Amino acid sequence: MNARISRAPRMRGFTMVETLVALFVLAIGVLGVTALHATSLRGGSSSHYRSQAALVAYDLMDRLRANRNAALNGDYNLAAGDDAPTGDGAAPLADDDLADWFDSHLSLLPGGSAVVACAADGICTVSVIWNDSRADPNAANQQFDFTSEI
Description:
Layout: H1 16-66, H2 68-72, H3 94-104, E1 113-118, E2 123-131, E3 141-149
Antiparallel strand pairs: 1-2, 2-3
């Protein structure tokens, strides 16, 4: 007679330790992707502000070219920390131009300010400064400089 010897059935599947290790690896991966996404958002925001600063500086340079004589006389010059001029609608028009520029363009940047310097030889520099602490808390203020002959 053939006696069959019964063996203990083999266990198949994952053990609890394997499952916990797999979940741990998955959690680390999700955290890494989340950190990468946050860094990407900060970088995108910083890039957007830098593009806005370039557009704002180019816009003011076009305004300087349109009113060249006033720019060469220094009517558009601004020092660091100067408040936005208030336009009155009367000549000279440089204050109206700067007031409109501050209100409609420079206000797009967080903490936006500007330095404008035009020399008598027609070389003008527009520096746009903004707070970029969202992207880099260690370097809060960023600056874009644009120099051109008008």
